[in-house]
Amino acid sequence: MNLLDILDLDLIDLDMDATDKDGVLKQLSSMLYKKGNIKDLDGLTDQVINASVAIGKVKQPVEWESLDDQPVSLIFLLAAPTGDLQKTHLQNLSQLASVVAHKAHVDALMKCETKEEFFELFETYFNEFTKRKEA
Fold first, then answer.
1. pTM of this prediction?
2. How far apart (Å, rounded) are the C-alpha atoms in residues 85 and 118?
């Protein structure tokens, strides 16, 4: 299973109202819950049914405990069942990191106005990563 296998238009929100980290996590978790990928909103530990990724873009950057200590605007919440943590979660995290490691990719994703546009662009970047990896 790769990252594209769990990418879902219903789990992308490019117009989030959240104004802080907790609000972002609640909105993203709610999307996972409504889609049936988690059992409970109170915590993701042992609550994940299906590996999934929820993606959100906030209207105004929010403070996050990021390495560069800068507020963030684009957030990816990866979720995986406990039994899949070693294999699926780490693989998906590595793939995601490869796509968003390029500032130009993030800048272009931030400019997307529809989730369909975001999905297609993300898929393009993912496929570029896959081709480089196979070469």
1. 0.91
2. 26
